[in-house]
Amino acid sequence: MINIAICFDDNFVMPAGVLLTSICISNNKNELTFYIISDSLSDENKRNLKLIVEKYKKNINFIDISLENLKDFPINLSSFTLATYYRILLSEVLPADLHKIIYLDCDMLVVDDLLEFFNTDITSFSTAITPDMFYDDERITNRLFYPVSEHYYNAGMLLINLDYWRNNKITEKTIDFIINHKELCLAHDQDAINAVLHGTIYSAPFRYNVQLDFFKKKTKMIFSDISKINDAREASKHPCIIHFTGPSKPWKFQSYNPFESLWYYFQDKTIWSKLPKEHEFQGYKLFKWKIKHFLELTHLRHKRINEYDDVSAVINKIIADLD
Fold this sequence. Notes:
By secondary structure, the protein is of the alpha/beta class. Helix content is 34%, strand content 15%. The chain is built from 12 helices and 9 strands. The strands form 2 sheets. The chain has a 7-stranded mixed sheet, with helices on both faces. It has a two-stranded antiparallel sheet with strand order 5-9. It is globular.
């Protein structure tokens, strides 16, 4: 049995449904139980998500939570809602007899089997997390009060030792850090998770959280060990979990992620297959983008040079394996 938690509100139901579809298809031989954490999902959205999971003969549970503990948390209303903080509550809201769970952000796809990773022995660790692109950025670790030797991780995917979190009051400590250091949490609860858990983390392979910068031709990744950059690049050739980091979401017109066609492959298998794309920008920014887009289409302006590696062969192989 693989336990998976996904946390979101009604604003992210469609991406969450695509993610659920990708997990079920990629793990069709595994027994899966999903825990959907939210404070406000409508009954219609719950029904739609349940239909996805039951179609593939998997299990799903909905857990409604109170946001009372999060009311004072900082958010950037243009990019986030309080749902971004739900994951830090998992050890408190999940069943007490659940000992380990994979948490996934909604802007992800799962394209390979998760069982081997779920069975990773993290008995002596709080969490298994994949390195962030700013893994050895001392500007971040200094801001969060810990040495750069303990690194910085991307919290979009977490394999959580729930017993460790409960026994060591990790949820309480993380909430306290955010409330007491709001100005330091520039990456919201990801910063707080790193600040609280540093030194207790199992470093997971890159393929379990392949981030946008892993396949940039001119990388901005910060690793003191150059071999880790090579490892990250190699992971983009055989990913298990693809993370659409940053503003480039595949359901937006302005997306430039090279894996977005793979996202469409899974979206086409959902009830949202015909849903029109949204615009990332609004107001003046949207007007400016439309002008640039028009000029590029009419060849009056040079189109931005593709700054990412070609991953079409990788996409084709993934789809062939799944079909």
